[in-house]
Structures are given as C-alpha cells and as structure tokens.
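Researcher: Can you fold this with zinc ion in place?
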Amino acid sequence: MKAKACLFFLFSLLLSSPLLGQTKRGHFLVSNRSSSNGLAEFDQNTSLLKTAAFQAQGVSINPLSGNVLVTVPGNPSTEIFELDENLNFLRVFANPGGNINILHLAHNPVANTVIATNHCGLYAGPSAWVFDSTGNQIATINVPTTTCTALGVAVRDDGRYLLGARLDTGIFEYGPTNNFLGILRNTQSLVSRITGLAIQKSTGNIYVSTEFQGIVVLDSGGTTVIKTITGNGLNGFHGLAFDENENLYVANTASNNILVFDPAGNLVSSFPSGGIEPFQIAFFPTGLVPPPTPQFVSPISVADLKKVGAGFFAPDSHLGQDYWADKGTSVRAISRATVAGFFPNVAGFGGWCPTSKDPNRSFVRPGPALWLRHQLSDGTFFHVLYGHMQPSQKILDILAGRLPRGTVITQGEMVGTLAPFIYCGTTSIPHLHLGIWLQDAIAPSPWGYGTKRSFTDPIAFLLNQKPAP
Ligand SMILES: [Zn+2]
C-alpha cells in the first residue's frame, strides 16, 4: 500500500512537471578542449545548432533540471561552470583550486551528486571530486594506484559508479555514498590507457575507450571482453555516450570528429565535432525525472541487525531506540551530518542494570556517546546521539582538528563501530542507542534514561520526516 501511494505520487509529479526534454530530445553537447568556442550543441539529426564560448574539457547535463556543467581550463585551476539548457552562463558551480586539471564530468541521479575526474598524475589534487547538487564538495576520491589519474566516469542505474584510471590502468568501482567497492576484476589486464567510459542501459555492459585498443566492450562485471570496436583502426578515442536507441557516439580526437556506431558495433556515420579535440559527449535528458524523495537510512544495516531492542520510553523512560548487533558492527549516519561532539565516558553508556534487577542502580559503567548535527528537508537542524559506539578515524580526526570542523559526513557513511555494553555486570549486549534531540544543540544530560524533554521517538521520526539532501 505504501509503495502504491508512492508510485501515484511519482506519477502525479511526472504529469505536472514541465516538459523539459521535449524540445531538446535527442540533442547532445560535445566539449572541445582546444577550442575557444569549444562547447557545441547538435540536434537529433547531428546538425550543429550552436557553439558556446567555453574551452570545455568535460560536459554533463543534469537529468533533473537540464542545466549543463562544463569544465573550463583556467590558470592554473580548472573551474566547473553551470549553464542553463540554452548554454547561458549561470554561475561558477565549483572550483577546488590549485594546479588541477578536471577532465570528465558525470551526474549521479541516484545520489544527486556530480563526479569530476582529475588529471592528477601530472597535476595536483585527487583522482576525482564529488559535489552535491549545489556544488559543495562532499568527497574526494583517490583510486588505489601509484599514479592517480582518472579519466572516464560512468554511473550505473543503482548509483554505483566507475572511474577509469588512464595511467595505471584499471576500472575502480564506488558506491552511491562514494565508498570504494573494489577494482573490476580483470580490467587491469583487459584494457589499457583508458580515456572514456559508458554503460549500455539494456545490458549493463561497460564500453571503454582507450588510446590504442579502440573501444573495448566488457560485461557488467568487467571480467570478459565481449567485443572490440576499432572504428577502422582510428585511435584517439575519448568520451563515449549512448543515445536513447543505444547508438554509440564516440569523440575522436585523431580527426576532430564524432563517430556513431549502431548497437551491433557498425560505424554508421561521422561528422565534425564543432571544434578541436572533442573530449566528452552528453545527451539531454529525454524527459524530466522528479528528484528522488530523500529518506533517512537505518543506522545499522538490515544485514547486521540482530534484534530491535528497547524502544523510546520503554521499558523505563528510555530516551532512544536500541539496535542490537555484534560488537564491532559498523554504525552509519542516518543522513548527511557534521560532528557536534564526542563524550568518551558517559555514566551508564558502557554498561548498566535496570531498577528491577539492581534497586540501587549501582552498576553503571562509563562509555562513549557521539553527537552529530543533522538537517531536515525544511532546513531545521536537529542533533542525534549515537551511543555505545567508538567513533571512526575520520570523526576522531575532525574532533582533533586534523580535519576541518565542518567536514561533512555523508548519508550512510560509517561513523563508528559498536563498543562493548555490559548488562548487570555479566552479560555483554553490544547495541546502538540512537537518540533524536529536536533542538539545534546537544541535549543537556541525562541522555539514556530520564524525562522526555526534546527527545522524540526515533522510529516514528525516521519514518515520517525527510532529511535535507
Ligand atoms: Zn538505549
């Protein structure tokens, strides 16, 4: 019933949305990095419509708004500009600064983020940056190779994304929350000098453009080569993109043109790229997709949860929700957050015994309590108590000033691991105590048991409230 209501909501949103994409359907942009008029728009018949005055290395189109992001080389820093769908300049979207060279861009519609790859083998900075939809930097990525250069980027349907490493070859996979998932199995031996990536929607196959091997088509896991497309022996392939009929468009820097291959891999047309050194290709969305409604995530994954423990106000004015899991289990941020405070020795947070078993409550062992500051979709801030867990190294670094105080914790990010919790001096019951404090401040103690004050029922809160994206 809930899913049905949700679907109806999505449909009604779709029906009431402006018809973006109807006028731009089949249109695409090509970035040409050695041209001062380097951003070219083509229609669905591959006719050049216009160029824009940007020397553009990478280009990506927001699937939600139709706005365009381009990477523009500067001196020394590359900037990312945001343009409207008619290619008018709106603002500087992001500028990480320093001697960097941003190459390709990709929107991740599942995470509502933007991924930008960097030529860090020859320049400064990480392999890639991840920005939220407004251009705030939320993560940096360093692919685990000796030379960190990343060039291609492609996003899977579920929000996992791939980075292609050009110098130390291989394809590296990351989760929607930018956690490293691993290297795709055989890619270090199957492909070399990667210059672009794309994923075919119907099969999940990975198309890899390379400097010397043409285009190598791998299965979705990157384990086997399905075919190679050489384009009559031409080299210098860079960005790849599929149109809605799964024809493959290839930026060919060797002759400054775009090659089009049908789904079987036959070359069907080629046309000038509208500039010099075509680099990345991006299609306008075929229809406006409503943004996903953000939801809170459970602080303990379903796979790790052993038992839903004591709830709010039960059995004895308990001021949070308990989640039982093994000692050492990862605890995740319920939504995007910053660190508010950490208290390593709170009475009762390392162990305790209820009144019925210990009338004097003499067994009270100190333990850790972490507070994070979160935000609701309406802009309201609130604080969350994550009790009985040891904070992650990143949080310790933030608390110690080794990382900036405002460093963002992304939704689902591991914030710590469950610490021991000793029940009545004998039994070990490791669990997370999650307390939701509705004010924009750390609650005055007591925190575990007591009167309600601004604490609220975490389960009802997580189900009924929406986090800020
Ligand atoms: Zn508790």
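Model: Folded with zinc ion in place. Residues 1-21 have pLDDT under 50 and may be disordered.
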